[in-house]
Amino acid sequence: MTTPRDHLSELSTEEKASLTSGRDFWTLKPIERVGVPSIMVTDGPHGLRKQAAASDHLGIGDSVPATCFPPASGLGASFDPALAERVGVALGVESAIEDVAVILGPGINIKRSPLCGRNFEYVSEDPLVSGVIGAGLVKGIQSQGVGSSLKHFAANNQEFERMTMSSDVDPRPLREIYLRGFERVVTDARPWTVMCSYNKINGVYASQDPWLLTQVLRDEWGFEGLVVSDWGAVNDRVAALVAGLDLEMPGSDGAPDRAVATAAASDPAVAAALDASAARVLDLVGKAQARPAASGPLDVDAHHALAREAAGRSIVLLRNEPVGGAPVLPLAEDASIALIGEFARTPRFQGGGSSHINPTRVDSALDALTAAAGDRVAFAPGFAFDAAADGQDALRDEAVALAASRDVAVVFLGLTDAEESEGFDREHIDLAAHQLALLDAVAAANPRTVVVLSNGSVVALPFADRVPAIVEAWLLGQAGGSATVDVLLGAVNPSGRLAETIPHRLEDTPAFGNIPGSLGHVRYGEGILVGYRWYDARDIAVTYPFGHGLSYTAFGYGAVSAAVTASGDIQVTVPVTNTGSRDGREVVQVYIAPVASVVERAPRELKAFASVEIAAGATADVVLTVRREDLAYWDTRVDRFVVEGGAYRVEVGASSRDLRDSTAVDVAGDAIVLPVTPESTLAEVFAHPVAGPMIAGAFAAVQEQLGDAGDGIMSGDAMAKMLGSFPLGRLPAFGWGVDREGVDRLIAAANAPQA
Ligand code: BGC
Question: Which residue puts its alpha carbon closest to atom 9 of ligand 1?
Answer without folding.
Answer: 354
